[in-house]
Amino acid sequence: MNETRRALLEALEEGPISGPALADRLGISRAAVWKQVNALREGGFTIESTAEGYTVTDVPEYGAAAIEFGLAVPYTVEYHDAVDSTNTRGREVASEGRRNVAVVANEQTASRGRLERPWTAPKGGIWCSIVCQPTVPAAHVPLSALAAGVATVSACRAAGLEAHLKWPNDVLVGDSGARGGHKLAGILTEMEGEQDRVSWLIVGIGVNANVDTDELPEDATSLRAELGEDIDRRRFVQRLLESFDAMLEDPDSVLDRWREYSSTLGQQVRLEMPNRTIEGRALDVQFPGGLVVETDDRQEVVHAGDCEHLRAQR
Amino acid sequence: MNETRRALLEALEEGPISGPALADRLGISRAAVWKQVNALREGGFTIESTAEGYTVTDVPEYGAAAIEFGLAVPYTVEYHDAVDSTNTRGREVASEGRRNVAVVANEQTASRGRLERPWTAPKGGIWCSIVCQPTVPAAHVPLSALAAGVATVSACRAAGLEAHLKWPNDVLVGDSGARGGHKLAGILTEMEGEQDRVSWLIVGIGVNANVDTDELPEDATSLRAELGEDIDRRRFVQRLLESFDAMLEDPDSVLDRWREYSSTLGQQVRLEMPNRTIEGRALDVQFPGGLVVETDDRQEVVHAGDCEHLRAQR
Predict the structure, then answer these.
(1) Could A275 and B189 be called an inter-chain contact, meaning their C-beta atoms sit closer than 8 Å?
(2) Average pLDDT value for chain B
(3) Is the peptide bond before B288 cis (omega within 30 degrees of 0)?
(4) How many CA atoms lie within 13 A of A139 on its CB side?
(5) Inter-chain touch A194–B190, beta carbons under 8 Å
(6) DSSP readout, B173-211?
């Protein structure tokens, strides 16, 4: 069913196509084509029947079919008006053996961030969990997490906002305060695997998009607040998926792009880890995703923790 | 039930103890103590009732209570005469929220190795999966896998056999042939987690212990074959758990011990990864578990793959 819809949308992207040609291409009856086309119309698509065939003239603002229409990478989108957590739903999808699925919701009712911390996910945001299985050893997964941060900043910049990355992958705007700016987006990566391979990887990306700041925590901001208008969430999610997928295909590109978008490198930082805290200068990020920090007496590589940008000591 | 048994065994380890004292210590009735003591007797323990109290004078060869008796670390042992795979059973244990459990079997009927490769696990071997949750970022898990290899070699050496480690954690004996020796034990590490923490880690350790080599693949050997006699599997598993747990507590010790036991460092090696193969000299192992290899034109760090020792080119 979803596969047929995806194939239909791909055929329609290319321009007008007749009912019989569609039936041929999808391997279904003309009656089934008609039914599918009507389902899209009920879903908000404007599809005109002209002499040359069916033509899409308008696409709904958001939703599974809207995101899939024109999407350049082979992801299936599962859309929810509301869901407890797209990552939790993503785990169900993963356990069913499905891969290359984006679980997208308009609202999350029991959203969670890193380390079970609460995460506010009101209506109008972009709450998207990508379920995939990169063919890399488990030790390379941090690079995929950085790629998700890069993809998010890239989509924000395409929408007109100069967001930046605080290690490992907080997406921030502005640079006031010790937290390095106001939080625009966050990423929660979950995985299962063995040393040689990943069974599934879920990259949950939460972006405060078309949301008022009074619905968000105090230190957060939104695309709406920063840009003064709503963004096209459909196009944003498409860019996110396309950009993330391109980096999975070309992992060598991730670190350079991360460095370009990062506001952490060169900064004096405090890193809080479960059993210790260090302070030092953030020198670089290194494969597969560790932050190289120079403290008073040594260099070390940190793999996870809370990073705070300290006031510059120049 | 298991907790009471564990507490009873701990009390008995310390020497003779009276029924009333046991009842006090375990917070159960004297009738319940008598029942538990009889259950141990039925399980093969010889427990004498003397004037000073209950005294353990003999312990069964193997089994949950036998391994727990005298075990210096707080692991619960779940023993099976036969199970499909101790790692598969370990995943069930993990999903029930239990941690610090060792699933031990006399035989695995559907045993699997790395990358779903078959693994022969006949009766008499040591098939043990440790279910735990180290408080480290997911990126540090490779170190726990190396620790499992070190613990296994350490237990083999305590049993009298000079085994060694081929990166990352194949346990081998002898050094004939390109494979670096005959395979004595293997380790399969599986995990689930997010970037900042591990939800569960299962370290499956398979040792060809009291097994004839004609039950094993051609390139494998067993402790029985190498030593000419059977080993004490109970003591072996105890040492394995104690040594592994000590390294989780003191991760800084792992790499030095790995280097000491390794036959890979200094060797010319071929590393087969999913999408490429490299050859070079194995220089070192570095935190959190990568092998540093010097090829003709560069140094690189490899995180997973099949390692083959090539014939020395000196």
Answers:
(1) no
(2) 94
(3) yes
(4) 23
(5) yes
(6) ES--TTTTSEEEEEEEEEEEEETTEEEEEEEEEEE--S-
- Rounded average pLDDT over A12-19: 92
> Which chain B positions have a beta carbon within 8 Å of A275's beta carbon?
135
Q: What DSSP character marks residue B119?
A: -
Structural domain count of chain B = 3
Determine the structural domain holding residue A278 and report its residue range. Answer: 268-309
DSSP letter string over A112-143? B-GGG-B----TTSEEEEEEE--SS-GGGHHH
As given in the structure block, the two tokens for residue B139 are: 């990126």
The CATH number of the domain where B275 resides is what? 2.30.30
Q: Which residue has the tokens 């399980």?
A: B43
User: Taking Cα atoms as reference points, which of B155, B157, B153, B158 lies closest to residue B170?
Assistant: B153
| Residue at A314 is within a domain | no
Subunit contact B288:A139, Cβ cutoff 8 A:
yes
Question: Is there a single domain that holds both residue A171 and residue A126?
Answer: yes
Contact assignment for B193 to A197 by CB distance below 8 Å: no
Confidence bin at B314 (pLDDT 50/70/90):
very low
Q: B303 with B165, same domain?
A: no
Q: Tell me: do B192 and B247 sit in the same domain.
A: yes
CATH number, position B25: 1.10.10.10
Residues of B with CB under 8 A from a CB of A: 114-115, 135-142, 145, 168, 188-197, 273-275, 287-290, 301, 303-305
Which residue is closest to A134 within chain B, CA to CA? B274
Pairwise CB contact (< 8 Å): A139 & B289: yes
Average pLDDT, integer, range B240-264: 96
- Are B20 and B121 in the same domain? no
Q: Is the same domain home to B191 and B47?
A: no
- Quote ipTM for the complex: 0.89
What pairing do the DSSP bridges indicate for beta strands A164-166 and B164-166? Answer: unpaired
Residue B26 lies in a domain: yes
Is there a single domain that holds both residue B136 and residue B179?
Answer: yes
Contact A142 B139 (CB under 8 A): yes
B275 with B251, same domain: the answer is: no
Closest C-alpha to A182, from A153, A217, A214, A211: A217
If you count residue pairs, one on A and one on B, with CB atoms under 8 Å apart, how many are there? 93
**Out of A141, A197, A304, whose CB is closest to B196?**
A304
- Tens-digit pLDDT profile for residues A120-167: 999 999 999 999 999 999 999 999 999 999 999 999 999 999 999 999
Question: What pTM value is reported for the model?
Answer: 0.92
* Co-location of A84 and A49 in the same domain: no
Q: What is the pLDDT of residue A314?
A: 44
